[in-house]
Design brief:
With 871 residues, the chain is mostly helical. It has 33 helices and four strands. Among the domains are: 3-122, no CATH class; 131-189 and 211-350, no CATH class; 396-486, no CATH class. Strand 1 and strand 2 (432-434) form a beta hairpin. It is globular. Mean pLDDT is 74; it is low at 1-128, 285-303, 398-406 and 412-481.
Length: 871
């Protein structure tokens, strides 16, 4: 049997073992013809396609709401309060470890889909049974619909920006990118055939076919979303076009690009060269700049970044993906890693608005500070938390006290101890040696002790009291004198022992008190580093300093925040002026002329002239806090009545109640609140995963009842993070495509226009996903053609909820009197057909999506559709 087929069979059988492996899953990347040559474990299933023409690559599950949040996975989950069970990695196994991550299920859905006899299937060749053929045809239909949805989004974007592309002559770079993509995709089947020809065997024929289950998400979504979003933003900000075209090529799967290098961890030279091909036809200005491009559509947005920076985007993207993959293990799929890396790079290159700079400082500066200063200490804390308490060294005092207590309470213990210890040489008065020491002597025999018999080192024994081993007697003590050597690598049954890694074994010499003191010292160090990175104004590496210099124009962040929230209160302004604190606390100015607000709508008149901008933000903060408290009370009240999925949807409705009415009132403040919440959630999840006291266990206990199957695939609990990101990304993208206003210390902190796309994420995640899950679970009877947990009723409910949310947002935009960003003020009734098209497109995207998180990809697809159709 070929090596890669043998390894594939072992991996398949390993899923059915008793040991849980939450971090093990097949790769969702494309098939790599040379995967077995480089020893890639992720592509062993894919290599079978090229060699035998049939592959059963498992499609990763999604977090779809119509799948009722992985209901088939939740059925196999253990009790959520079993927090003593340790995480067992694929190559590192520990026992009895303490971890705040909920215990995984023993059998994953991948193992349920694998064949019971993988070896037989590997030799079966390209012949498929009837059900497999039907399943493959349904999967092809599903992927064709997915491709058509993405193609429809591309057509709408092209119709929107066709004139701008022709005027600015940016279509050449776009054609080069599309040509590279098409050539690599068309050459891939030919490479498979060539690889199968060179690695064929005399007894097998060459046969290449489409696998029964496959996923095109790594090939489709990272390039398509990157290109479409960059094209829409390039209409107002030309600087984002060329770097994102290069990142589109960088996001192609590595197996799609032919390579001759044997280095798995380094950059591919050919892929790097292909990513630089758009630079050969670049007709724009190549003058380097040393600042960032303005996402607000300012004058500096017409200048490109330097040529050297664009050429180094591929190694930056490659290295960032490696770091993110190490940090998240298997929590994120391949397409999600690519999109996350591209988003972080765009944030670093093109953030100049205050909100974007603050988010950039929190993620890049703060993240790098914690990664450099705390990574090793966090690893020590995790290793220490994996050590069970019985493994720690016991103190001598506790041993003596325990021995004396047992001797007084149980006198028969002394007799048993006397039986287990015999004189080393048979003479009285000598120190007694345990039976284990006597077992090492070669001249002793296997005997049975009874009565007053004795055994000495020379092998003599009393014939009246010695019996052979064959006469089995109960309640006798066996003296094993010549036993086979003990194996430290295998159990007595022949099974290989689980070895404790060195990173955990080094803590066995500690006592429990020493381990607790060391764990608290690790926690104190991490908390100190986090506080120092955020609060200390350290140049170049401090978050506070970065925000002060780049976002607030040299103003101190704490004083600026006080003026930003409390600047309209009369007593606060009087205290600041009377104590001469204007240099530290920046007070916002008030408009005194009604003409200043002409054409802004009655809501802005009320907010600026009567209530005050700072008071409005203060009122919104109280409103957000009240919604959060009310939602938590409702969740706790429903915990004993309704199931987990229903309680999870309460958080979705909380996002709708908070941001659907408040986003139009002050979009910049809503974006800032979402940025701060995202950084706070990431920090809390870092503390939970690091298993450091005192916050890790309470956080894990709170999150345990609300996790789903995707949360158990890696160390990161991604449900609440992706929920927040899905609501925030459309708002951040919309703010990046419209100009900024503001005077004085609030320059860049307001926008003159609004658009429906700002709340598309809240509508899609809060209303659409929740409606699809609730309706699909209870009334879903008709499944989609390709099967799975998604139903037609759930998809229809998704589309109806999204359409209703868009209609409410459009009515609120019309009633509030805010001018639309596209300059065309259509009535809500006239925009209804376009909103229906957008709702159906989002529903289809959610129905066919498998290789990515629908809480992120579907809101972006809805934003693209809304922006392209001019809603």
């Amino acid at each position: 049997m070929p090596e890669h087929l043998h390894t594939s069979g072992q991996n398949a059988l390993r899923l059915f073992s008793r040991s849980p492996h939450p971090y093990h899953r097949p790769s969702s990347q494309l098939l790599d013809p040379s995967s077995h040559l480089y020893g890639s474990l992720d592509n062993h299933h894919n290599a079978r396609l090229a060699a035998h023409g049939a592959s059963r690559e498992v499609t990763p599950s999604s977090d779809s709401g119509t799948e009722a949040d992985d209901e088939h996975f939740l059925r196999g989950l253990p009790a959520p309060r079993r927090l003593h069970k340790g995480l067992r990695g694929r190559n590192e196994v520990v026992s009895g470890a303490s971890t705040p991550l909920p215990s995984p299920a023993i059998l994953e859905e991948e193992g349920q889909r694998l064949p019971l006899n993988p070896t037989r299937e590997a030799h079966s060749g390209p012949k498929l049974r009837g059900p497999d053929t039907l399943r493959r045809r349904k999967e092809i239909i599903r992927r064709v619909i997915e491709l058509l949805v993405v193609g429809f989004l591309g057509l709408t974007v092209h119709d929107n920006i066709r004139a701008q592309l022709m005027i600015r002559r940016r279509h050449r770079e776009l054609c080069v990118c599309g040509g590279v993509y098409a050539v690599l995709v068309l050459l891939y089947p030919l490479r498979l055939v060539m690889w199968a020809y060179w690695h064929r065997t005399p007894t097998r024929k060459i046969a290449v076919s489409i696998p029964v289950s496959f996923d095109t998400a790594p090939l489709l979504y990272p390039p398509a979303i990157t290109m479409l979003v960059s094209l829409l933003l390039a209409v107002d900000n030309e600087a984002v076009f060329l770097p994102n075209i290069i990142l589109t090529i960088c996001s192609l799967p590595p197996s799609l690009v032919p390579t001759i290098t044997l280095d798995d961890g380094g950059c591919d030279p050919l892929h790097w060269a292909l990513s630089c091909t758009p630079l050969l036809v670049d007709t724009g200005s190549r003058q380097p700049i040393f600042g960032r491009a303005d996402l607000g559509g300012g004058e500096s947005s017409r200048t490109n970044i330097s040529l050297e920076t664009t050429m180094l985007l591929y190694p930056l993207h490659h290295s960032l993906c490696s770091v993110l993959r190490t940090l998240t293990t298997t929590s994120l799929l391949t397409a999600e890693l690519q999109l996350l890396s591209i988003s972080l790079i765009n944030l670093m290159l093109f953030s100049s608005s205050p909100q974007a700079i603050i988010l950039n400082s929190l993620l890049w500066v703060g993240g790098l500070d914690i990664l450099v200063s705390c990574s090793q200490v966090i690893n020590w804390g995790i290793s220490l938390a994996r050590v069970p308490k019985w493994r720690f060294k016991r103190t001598p005092g506790s041993l003596k006290a325990t021995s004396a207590l047992f001797s007084a309470a149980l006198p028969w213990k002394k007799k048993e101890r006397g039986l287990r210890y015999t004189p080393a040489d048979g003479s009285p008065g000598r120190a007694c040696a345990p039976i284990d020491d006597l077992q090492q002597s070669d001249d002793l025999e296997i005997t049975t002790l009874g009565g007053s018999g004795n055994i000495n080192a020379s092998g003599t024994r009393d014939a009246a009291t010695t019996k052979t081993l064959k006469s089995s007697q109960r309640h006798t003590l066996l003296g094993v004198t010549k036993a086979p050597p003990k194996s430290y690598t295998h159990t007595p049954s022949g099974r290989r022992r689980r070895t404790t890694p060195d990173s955990v074994r080094v803590f066995f010499s500690l006592t429990q008190k020493q381990a607790a003191a060391r764990k608290w010292s690790y926690a104190l160090y991490v908390y100190t580093c986090v506080a120092g990175a955020v609060l200390l104004p350290i140049p170049f590496i401090g978050v506070k300093r970065a925000i002060m210099d780049e976002a607030l124009h040299g103003r101190e962040p704490i004083g600026w925040a006080l003026g930003y929230l409390l600047g309209d209160l009369q007593w606060f302004r009087w205290e600041v002026v009377s104590r001469n604190l204007e240099g530290w606390i920046c007070l916002p100015s008030r408009p005194v002329e009604p003409g200043y607000l002409r054409g802004t709508g009655w809501v802005d008149h009320l907010r600026r002239l009567y209530l005050g901008e700072a008071n409005t933000r203060l009122a919104l903060s109280g409103y957000f806090l009240s919604i959060i408290v009310t939602g938590l009370i409702v969740v706790f009240q429903l915990s004993q009545i309704y199931e987990v999925d229903t309680r999870r949807k309460v958080f979705h409705f909380m996002m709708v109640a908070m941001f659907l009415p408040a986003t139009y009132i002050d979009p910049a403040f809503a974006a800032l609140a979402l940025s701060g919440a995202l950084a706070f959630f990431l920090l809390l999840d870092l503390l939970r995963a690091s298993q450091l006291p005192p916050v890790s266990k309470p956080l894990a206990s709170f999150l345990a009842p609300y996790v789903d199957g995707r949360d158990l695939r890696g160390p990161v609990v991604i449900s609440h993070i992706f929920l927040l990101i899905g609501c925030a990304i459309p708002l951040w993208l919309s703010l990046g495509s419209i100009p900024r206003t503001g005077v004085g210390c609030l320059e860049g902190w307001d926008v003159p226009t609004r658009e429906v796309g700002m709340v598309s994420g809240v509508i899609c995640v809060g209303l659409g996903d929740a409606a699809a899950s609730l309706i699909g679970r209870r009334y879903g009877r008709r499944k989609w053609l390709w099967g799975g947990g998604k139903s037609l009723e759930g998809s229809i409910a998704f589309a109806c909820a999204v359409f209703l949310g868009l209609a409410v947002a459009r009515v609120w935009l019309h009633i509030g009197g805010w001018p639309p960003s596209n300059g065309v003020s259509d009535a809500p009734v006239a925009a209804a057909p376009k909103m229906g098209v957008c709702a159906v497109t989002a529903s289809l995207t959610e129905a066919v999506l498998t290789g990515g998180n629908d809480n992120v990809i579907v809101p972006v697809a809805l934003w693209i559709c809304l922006k392209s159709l001019g809603i």
